[in-house]
Model the fold of this input.
Amino acid sequence: MAFPLILAALLQNISPPAAAETSDPSGAAIAAPAIADEDMRLFAALNGRKVAGRPVGGPYPTADKILLLTRDNRGNPEIGGSLAMPVRQSLPPPPAGTLAVVRLHQRSETVVPGPTTDDLAFVAANRIPLFVIGEWARPAPMWEVAWQGDAVRYRIIGDVGEIGPWQD
Done:
């Protein structure tokens, strides 16, 4: 299947700063947080929900949309890359410099809406925050999935920014 090769090529072209580290405005290296900073969470909520409901171009009409979040040279959140992946396909490791990932699911695949087992596995493997947005409802529900302590946990992010409790 040619899709993984194309995806790998796209991800190699998205190369912000170093893996799991970035630099602050003074140039000092800082580690990527396991839980997203507040500004990154708000950026993901605003920009991710803007994408919800928009059609996906290419060979996968029901693909999940993926946004790779980074910081610009002034330290502000930005979208470092965007792509689409077939539904029910696990996410590959993110490119160097990615601080968080937003994944928009077209339909709920769990009995109780929320992150899928693939979403939880992605965070466990990569230890970076993942924001999951459900395109099946309006307003689009959103969850933050993060590595916390020694386990993957998630919480709901409301449509006006309220944050729910962490769940296992």
